[in-house]
């Protein structure tokens, strides 16, 4: 080894050992749009080892060649990096397919034999990761099959065995705790990767870089200077073909419990002693423990459901007219909530969090709004256009950071107006950001769990969400028109406290 090369240096390409990635649910939406294209992107960047194999599993009577064709089409359609036939020639030649249902013992025995065979044919040395890209109710069945066949057993395999569990991890605290126990019975704690793809986004990781690598922000990152924080995850899309899942979940369980509470934890956490997985989790967990719903959940939260309307000039159906949604569904497609964080740094600072489907456009951002200057030695008319100083981290789609502050308008008057200093990833860096799944799949294969929430974080997040769901039981969501920024109640929520949503 080159003594000048630090093996911990993350700028050096990290390449996994030869291994197999088994994808349960390989014919599904996630595998087709994100996982298979992400794997191609990793291969294209030279980050996969020579002995890498993808094994697909689903209820199809396919052979390896049919699967390879599906994977090729998925990669050609959705990959981030350019198509290179020579890259595919290597990757596509290492695709295996095992057909069967989750209750089919013979199919899992067949999968175990396939993995054993790859030991010699591809030199994977028993290393395999199992990705559960399947409907959440099927997680236990697959975990039990992996236990029954011994496929989850590192010692028996003679290499590492890991499992990736998709979200949502449980439906409430009780079911999440049950699932955690089952996962822990089958795999060792270090081998479990609970995925939250928001943590794989570059801009989300940049929250920590921004906060902890600069001196500029930390002194004002507290209730002395911060007026409020707004987190927005707006989606222009509806529920597509996912009615079965979505109608039983709703916006709070689908994204507030995971993506948005994780973002909140990153914004509010204390500095970790290092960027070690355990240190970061410890700090995030403290925030989640301190996160509190408003005393009166009914007035401090808003839930909405979209009605037919127009998005980007296209007429779109209402939620109740989406295929597979019951005509009397009261599931929310929008939620806004005012959270508090009960600790010294954040006491009294509201964290307004909102998410919705069929909004006017797709945008995820977090904005820290600072208090206004205690005294303004200007004519009131000259500061009419001066708002709160704001730091806005745009997670997507135009990734970047904007700092908004007052500046003098050129001229003889002392007029002060808000202006924005804007950093855009696309302009500042030549490399384009890896897709979240691309990054996270690589981390699983390397065995780096830094960006994966721990069991305690998942359970603690449900402790925040469960009372919300209980309070909403039997209530009807407030309608909003598709293409609008949610129901009126969301504006009223902030207006009652003398605030308004930023224009995202
Ligand atoms: N799609 C997305 O954008 C996102 C999805 N997720 C999560 O990812 C997971 C997968 O989602 P998604 O891809 O949308 O789901 P889909 O419904 O599109 O796909 C489900 C997959 O599971 C397979 N499957 C279902 N039941 C069985 C069974 N009894 N035996 C064998 N295979 C079965 C299906 O295979 P077949 O029917 O061909 O046998 C299919 O490949 C879920 O946990 C979801 O919550 C998370 C974030 C975003
Ligand atoms: O986890 C989920 O995320 C997607 C949004 O992901 P993004 O990376 O496109 O922002 C959301 O549409 C889906 O409902 C949810 O399950």
TrEMBL record:
Entry binding sites for substrate: 197, 201, 235, 254, 357
GO cellular component entries: cytosol
Pathway(s) per entry: Carbohydrate degradation; pentose phosphate pathway; D-ribulose 5-phosphate from D-glucose 6-phosphate (oxidative stage): step 1/3
Xref: Pfam families: G6PD_C, G6PD_N
Gene Ontology MF annotations: glucose-6-phosphate dehydrogenase activity; NADP binding
Active-site residues, Swiss-Prot/TrEMBL: 259
Gene3D superfamilies to which the protein is assigned, alphabetical: Dihydrodipicolinate Reductase, domain 2, NAD(P)-binding Rossmann-like Domain
Highest taxon of source: Bacteria
GO-annotated biological processes: glucose metabolic process; pentose-phosphate shunt, oxidative branch
PANTHER family: GLUCOSE-6-PHOSPHATE 1-DEHYDROGENASE, GLUCOSE-6-PHOSPHATE 1-DEHYDROGENASE G6PD
UniProt protein name: Glucose-6-phosphate 1-dehydrogenase
Annotated organism of origin: Natronosporangium hydrolyticum
Phylogenetic classification of the source organism: Bacteria, Bacillati, Actinomycetota, Actinomycetes, Micromonosporales
């Amino acid at each position: 080894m080159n003594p000048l090369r630090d093996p911990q240096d993350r700028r050096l390409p990290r390449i996994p050992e030869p291994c197999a990635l088994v994808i349960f649910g390989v014919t599904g939406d996630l595998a087709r749009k994100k996982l298979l294209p992400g794997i191609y992107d990793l291969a294209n960047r030279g980050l996969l080892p020579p002995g890498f194999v993808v094994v697909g599993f689903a209820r199809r009577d396919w052979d390896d060649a049919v699967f390879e064709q599906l994977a090729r089409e998925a990669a050609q359609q959705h990959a981030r990096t350019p198509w290179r036939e020579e890259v595919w020639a290597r990757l596509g030649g290492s695709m295996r397919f095992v057909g069967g249902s989750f209750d089919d013992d013979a199919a899992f025995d067949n999968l175990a034999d396939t993995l054993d065979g790859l030991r010699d044919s591809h030199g994977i040395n028993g290393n395999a990761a199992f990705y559960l890209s399947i409907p959440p109710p099927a997680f236990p069945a697959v975990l039990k099959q992996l236990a029954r066949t011994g496929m989850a057993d590192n010692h028996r395999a003679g290499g590492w065995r890991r499992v990736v569990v998709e979200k949502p991890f449980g439906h409430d605290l009780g079911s999440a705790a049950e699932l955690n126990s089952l996962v822990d019975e089958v795999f060792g704690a270090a081998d479990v990767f609970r995925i939250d793809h928001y943590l794989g986004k570059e801009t989300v990781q940049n929250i920590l870089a921004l906060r902890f690598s600069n001196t500029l922000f930390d002194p004002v990152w507290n209730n002395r200077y911060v007026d409020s924080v707004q987190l927005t995850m707006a989606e222009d899309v509806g529920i597509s073909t996912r009615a079965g899942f979505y109608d039983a979940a709703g916006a709070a369980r689908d994204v507030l419990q995971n993506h948005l509470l994780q973002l909140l934890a990153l914004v509010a956490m204390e500095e970790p002693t290092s960027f070690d997985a355990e240190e970061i989790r410890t700090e995030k967990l403290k925030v989640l423990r301190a996160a509190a719903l408003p005393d009166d959940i009914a007035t401090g939260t808003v839930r909405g459901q979209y009605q037919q309307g127009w998005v980007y000039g296209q007429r779109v159906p209402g939620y109740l007219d989406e295929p597979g949604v019951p005509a009397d569904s009261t599931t929310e497609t929008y939620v806004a909530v005012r959270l508090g964080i009960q600790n010294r740094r954040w006491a009294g600072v509201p964290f307004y969090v909102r998410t919705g489907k069929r909004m006017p456009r797709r945008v995820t951002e977090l904005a820290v709004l600072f208090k206004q200057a205690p005294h303004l030695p200007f004519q009131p008319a000259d500061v009419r256009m001066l708002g709160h100083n704001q730091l806005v981290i745009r997670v997507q789609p135009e990734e970047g950071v904007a700092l908004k502050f007052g500046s003098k308008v050129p001229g003889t008057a002392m007029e002060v107006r808000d202006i924005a200093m804007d950093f855009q990833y696309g302009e500042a860096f030549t490399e384009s950001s890896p897709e979240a799944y691309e990054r996270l799949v690589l981390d699983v294969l390397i065995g780096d769990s830094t960006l994966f929430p721990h069991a305690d974080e998942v359970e603690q997040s449900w402790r925040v969400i469960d009372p919300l769901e209980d309070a909403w039981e039997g209530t009807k969501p407030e309608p909003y028109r598709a293409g609008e920024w949610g129901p009126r109640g969301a504006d009223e929520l902030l207006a009652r406290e003398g605030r308004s949503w930023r224009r995202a």
